Every structure is written in structure tokens, then in C-alpha cells.
Design the sequence.
């Protein structure tokens, strides 16, 4: 069950409290790890707690799922990488800037994690827009960013533990079951063997 508890993660670049769910924070840390650099968050989620989001954000940031990242300090290649990585991790991400096609706003990257909860009406609308292949803006023009094929609509599951670790766990569990064979009642022995079997089932053979 995702942890949708809202927590404060320091301040944003305007000195406002930076709120997001534990779920979204963990998601972002996984993105940052993948990126190899850490973009700066300029506006978080739950802006109602800070007295409402920027007018240009139209309430998108009032609840969960949305935050904005600074783009002027990223190279073109880093910006492209940011958009692609967020999308591979199951969120919508669009670069916004002064051009009409990109929203006609101060440059930033807007991110909507559609599986975060609760989404504001605006956040939910931008997520639907993404799912429908649009740009998340009022004009609902076609999406102008790279789109994963097939679209990733939720964060990918964590990679399975490495094979050697699983084999070791299975061996230890089997040994324990063997040790218990002569001296413990049947149900406990069965439990230990079931545990070993469960571990072995988790191993995906190449
Ligand atoms: Zn935004």
C-alpha cells in the first residue's frame, strides 16, 4: 500500500514549505538516482497548505501528484533526460517556457505523478491529458515530448533482488528446515520449508 502521508521536505526556491507525499518523494528519489544529477524543485504539491499555488498553475499543485522543477540551469540534454526519465518512471512531464506551444509561461518542467493521491481536479485533468496523448495545457494540443511505447502509467516495480542473494536466502532457509527436521513439530518444519520454496519461486531464471 503506497504511503500517501504528506510530509514537508524543507523549503522550495521561494522559501515556501515544500510538501509532498512520502510516495511521491520516494518516486522522485528513484528518478534522481537514475538521472545522476539532482534538479531543483521550485514548487511542490499541497500548495493549499502554503496558501495556494502560483496563479499560472491553476490549482494543479493544490493537492498531491504535481511539482515543478527548475530548467534554466539544465543543459538541453539534461532537460531531455529529465522528461524521458520521469516518463519512464510512470509520470507525465512537460517542459514549459515562454513559447505558446509550451504554455507561454516562465521556464520550468511540470511533473504529474498520476498514481499519487489525492489529486486536485487540475492534476487529474493533466494526467488524463497525458494518457490521451495531449500536452496537459488548456488547448489539449498533441503531446510535444517523447512518449514511452507502451506508455508507462505507474512507477515500475523495484528490480528483483540479485540472484546470489536469493540463492543464499533459499539455502539458509532450507538448512534451517533440515536442522528442525528431527526436533520440532510438523507445522514449524512445514513453515520453514514453505519459506525456502517461496524464495526459490522468486528466482527468475535467465
Ligand atoms: Zn506545475
Sequence:
Amino acid at each position: 500500500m503506497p504511503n500517501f502521508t504528506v510530509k514537508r521536505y524543507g523549503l522550495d526556491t521561494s522559501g515556501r514549505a515544500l510538501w509532498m507525499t512520502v510516495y511521491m518523494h520516494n518516486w522522485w528519489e528513484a528518478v534522481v538516482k537514475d538521472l545522476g544529477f539532482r534538479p531543483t524543485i521550485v514548487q511542490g504539491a499541497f500548495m493549499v497548505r502554503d496558501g495556494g499555488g502560483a496563479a499560472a498553475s491553476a490549482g494543479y499543485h493544490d493537492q498531491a501528484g504535481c511539482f515543478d522543477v527548475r530548467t534554466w540551469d539544465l543543459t538541453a540534454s539534461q532537460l531531455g533526460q529529465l522528461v524521458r526519465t520521469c516518463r519512464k518512471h510512470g509520470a507525465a512531464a512537460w517542459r514549459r517556457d515562454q513559447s505558446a506551444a509550451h504554455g507561454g509561461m516562465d521556464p520550468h518542467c511540470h511533473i504529474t505523478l498520476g498514481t499519487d493521491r489525492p489529486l486536485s481536479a487540475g492534476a487529474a485533468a493533466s494526467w488524463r491529458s497525458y494518457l490521451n496523448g495531449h500536452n496537459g495545457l488548456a488547448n489539449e494540443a498533441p503531446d510535444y515530448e517523447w512518449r514511452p511505447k507502451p506508455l508507462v502509467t505507474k512507477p515500475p516495480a523495484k528490480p528483483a533482488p540479485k540472484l546470489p542473494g536469493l540463492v543464499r536466502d533459499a539455502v539458509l532457509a532450507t538448512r534451517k528446515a533440515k536442522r528442525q527436521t528431527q526436533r520440532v513439530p510438523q507445522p514449524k518444519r512445514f513453515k520453514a520449508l514453505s519459506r525456502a520454496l517461496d524464495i526459490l519461486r522468486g528466482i527468475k531464471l535467465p
In short: Residues 6-131 form a domain with the Muramoyl-pentapeptide Carboxypeptidase; domain 2 fold (CATH 3.30.1380). Residues 163-180 form the longest helix (18 residues). The first strand starts at residue 6 and ends at 11.
